[in-house]
Amino acid sequence: MDAITPESSSGADWDSLPFDNSYARLPKSFFTRLDPTPVATPRLIKVNQRLAKAIGIDPEILSGPKSAEILAGNLVPQTAEPLAMVYAAHQFGNWVPRLGDGRAILLGEIVGPDQIRRDIQLKGAGPTPYSRMGDGRAVLGPVMREYIVSEAMAGLGIRTTRALAMTMTGEMVMREGPEPGAVLTRVASSHIRVGTFQYFHGQRDAEAIRRLANYVIDRHYPEARDAAQPYRALLEAVAGNTAELVASWMLVGFIHGVMNTDNTAISGETIDYGPCAFMDAFHPQTVFSSIDQSGRYGYDQQASIGLWNITRFAETLLPLLDADDETALASAKQALEVYWPRFEAAFHVGLCAKIGLPGGAKGDFDLAMDLLNRMAQQKADFTLTFRRLCDAPAGDHAAKAMLRTLFEDPAVFDEWEGQWRPRITMDGTDAIQRRRAMRAVNPAFIPRNHQVQRAIDFATQAEDFQPMEDLLSVLVTPFEDHPGHEELMLPATADQAVTQTFCGT
Ligand code: AMP
Ligand code: MG
Predict the structure, then answer these.
(1) Residue 157, by phi and psi: left (phi above 0), alpha (psi -120 to 50) or beta?
(2) Is 58 a catalytic residue?
(3) Ligand 1 within 6 A of 262 CB?
(4) pLDDT tens digits along 392-406
(5) Which of 101, 119, 262, 470 is the catalytic position?
(6) Which of 106, 400, 145 is closest to 258 using CA atoms?
(7) Which of 43, 245, 253, 254 is the S-S candidate for 249 at Cβ 3.0 to 4.6 Å?
(8) What average pLDDT does the structure give for the chain?
């Protein structure tokens, strides 16, 4: 491929970017080397300058003239070594021995100023040996959904892959009808999944599992290296991170939608935003995905599914845990015992903080759960209830009136408040201080499904990206008020409601 000429005033360009590709140094059975498939007319529609800077890419390079071609896959930077990773999965509980990156290509890795190594991946970059019947492409709607929701998660402080850029390809892609093609540039602390381990487990390749586990320890869990039993420490760390990740989703009303084992990152980051969504009205059994008929991945199933997925990971590690099968099994079981305590600690403390009682005491947790039950019964909006509750300690009457109306029968809230108010006055915290603490954990803005859909519709139908820009501008700092954008705080009205989101293909 031709070298790329310098394109920024600082002289920095994509060719001078020091990709350092540790995954490409792993055995050949881990991936297939291949370049992205060029597209007709690449056009950059969004770059994330702030993220670029944070991860060590000169923002000038990112918005430079060659970027569209690089980020759509028409040019490959000199030190990149593009590849598609292989993995397997349990999809909706069914074993699939080989999946792999069917439409994503890893350009390589970059080590940031924070010394963190990150993958730079193009999603929608063309077919690979793992594409099966797929076309290797992505379309604008799902690409925008992933960009918006992953950046919202980052704003909320939830561990996640990130979105560095979006390009349109100038090609139409067939889905239910023709749709504009797009490529997402995804940044992850790695793309290793439970399914990556499962692939080698299915191949009965114990040596590959050891190589992968050692790689993961070096890259993500270096403290496990010094533990008495490093692989067991790895399992505990992944179990604990996953438990905390799921708790953090539940505390903001997020439903991942497709928690298959290929969509469960070993790093503990949220990955693969397909038919995901934030709830408006709270109901614990909410399911969004049109393909999740059984409710397997509904809101209240997520913690146990997280453990189910990590148990599949544990199975792949058994030969590394002990030479004796029984001992290995016992060791894995013990390691997995960290899961529920870690989930509960995060969820209990987090939920208590949402009602202004950060200690996480048992009685406070019961009080918070009682509120959730009342919200479910009364179809109260998850995000607004907690946000408006922030103003309640200061005795703001207008705010309280707004809060009550979120409940079909406001008396059901009043009853709860009757227990909560004496409790918050008990510990002597100043009302202003409590309000501040509550506002720091109860966001005003989440990517409401109807707003995400509206942003997608404007972009797809009129190439108007303003609604997306407006949405992103509040989601970067979701705990602030953003006067002038109040409408983005509101739940969908009956005719705006989107009840299902479809698989991100
Ligand atoms: P996902 O549902 O996005 O987690 O994808 C599951 C598997 O299907 C992964 O191996 C993807 O790479 C693959 N896949 C999804 N969409 C496509 C597509 N349009 N072309 C090729 N492979 C795809
Ligand atoms: Mg996936």
Answers:
(1) left
(2) no
(3) yes
(4) 888 778 888 999 999
(5) 262
(6) 145
(7) 254
(8) 95
Beta-bridged to residue 172, according to DSSP, are 180
User: Which ligand 1 atom is at minimum distance from the Cα of 87?
Assistant: 10
Evaluate if residue 212 carries a pLDDT over 90: yes
Position 126, amino acid: G
pLDDT band at 292 (very low <50, low <70, confident <90, very high): confident
Q: What is the mean pLDDT of residues 23-28?
A: 98
Q: Which residue's CA is the closest to the ligand 1 atom numbered 17?
A: 134
User: Which sign, positive or negative, has the C-alpha torsion 489, 492, 496, 497?
Assistant: positive
Dist CA 262 CA 309 (whole Å): 9
Q: What is the DSSP letter of 8?
A: S
The radius of gyration computed from the CA coordinates of the chain, to the nearest angstrom, equals: 23
How much is the pLDDT for 195?
Answer: 98
Please name which of 263, 260, 258 lies closest in space to residue 275, comparing C-alpha atoms: 258
More confident residue, 8 or 96: 96
Rounded to the nearest 10°, the torsion over CA 190, 115, 342, 318 is: 50
Q: Which residues pair with 241 in a beta bridge?
A: none
Nearest to 143 by CA among 187, 99, 190, 180: 180
Question: What are 142-152's pLDDT values in tens digits?
Answer: 999 999 999 99
pLDDT tens for 450-488 read 999 999 999 999 999 999 999 999 999 999 999 999 999
Give pTM, 2 decimals: 0.96
Tell me the backbone φ, ψ of residue 171, rounded to 5 degrees.
-115, 150
Determine which residue's CA is closest to atom 8 belonging to ligand 1: 102
- Calpha distance 82→465 (Å, rounded): 30
Asked whether the predicted pLDDT for residue 315 surpasses 80, the reply is: yes
Can you tell me the mean pLDDT for 22-26?
Answer: 98
CA angle 344, 350, 355 (to 5 degrees): 125
DSSP 418-436: HHHHHHHHHT---HHHHHH
DSSP 172-219: EEESSSEEEEEEEEEEES---BHHHHHHHHHTT-HHHHHHHHHHHHHH
Token pair 């692939």 is found at 199
How far is 323 from 116, CA to CA, in rounded Å?
Answer: 34
Q: Is the CB of 491 under 6 A from ligand 1?
A: no
Q: How many CA atoms lie within 13 A of 414 on its CB side?
A: 7
Ligand 1 atom index nearest CA of 101 = 12
